[in-house]
Amino acid sequence: EAQVTQNPRYLITVTGKKLTVTCSQNMNHEYMSWYRQDPGLGLRQIYYSMNVEVTDKGDVPEGYKVSRKEKRNFPLILESPSPNQTSLYFCASSPAWFGNNEQFFGPGTRLTVL
Amino acid sequence: AQSVAQPEDQVNVAEGNPLTVKCTYSVSGNPYLFWYVQYPNRGLQFLLKYITGDNLVKGSYGFEAEFNKSQTSFHLKKPSALVSDSALYFCAVRDRGNTDKLIFGTGTRLQVFP
């Protein structure tokens, strides 16, 4: 089954404790992206990757890191999480970054930073 | 600047009645337009998209959307709402003439009452 998987689905952590949220897709997509969803703000893009070893900042990159060493994986790293990073996070992929391709979304990771 | 507006935070409709979820956009070039749906505790799912051609686009689950270039709108519609349509709906636009960036609206919660 074609899908985007994220782990963990739920995470409660404390300020300053490094964490990684994994994202993997099995559709051989070139483009992958991370979003955060907050009430009243919709989805805001954190980072994106057009292909392996190519990443770039989205609209709200501060406090996050990403890497794209393999085509299928695109982990999101919070080196020192803060309470304002409490949010619902989605990973997405699509065949290419341009054009009319729709994005495929993972199930989401709900992160709480205390 | 590119933007997407969903003017209603919530739309309430009785089961069996027609529904409309509004979306307007502002881009510098010709857009690709998308609708996504998010059910509780799930990731976003693609519903439909407008690329070019016929202004009325048909998508999944009986939904359709009408592209209106003069009004820069892309409203989502369904002739007869179901309780199971209750979800959060996002409009998104990709500006082909600019950065090709995908911009999401803030979302509209659709509540269908029995």
Short summary:
Chain A has 114 residues and is an all-beta fold. Chain A has strands at residues 4-7, 10-13, 19-25, 31-38, 42-51, 54-57, 65-66, 76-78, 87-94, 104-105, 109-113. Chain B is globular and about 45 Å long.
Description:
The complex is a heterodimer of chains A (114) and B (114). Chain A is mostly beta strands and 114 residues long. Chain A contains no helices and eleven strands. In chain A, strands 2, 4, 5, 6, 9, 10 and 11 form a seven-stranded mixed sheet that branches. Chain A has a four-stranded antiparallel sheet with strand order 1-3-8-7, with no helix packed on it. Chain B is an all-beta fold and 114 residues long. Chain B is 0% helix and 54% strand. Chain B contains no helices and twelve strands. In chain B, the strands form three sheets. In chain B, strands 2, 5, 6, 10, 11 and 12 form a six-stranded mixed sheet that branches. Chain B is globular.
Task: Supply database-style keywords.
heterodimer; A: 114 residues; mainly beta; B: 114 residues; 6-stranded mixed β-sheet; 4-stranded antiparallel β-sheet; globular
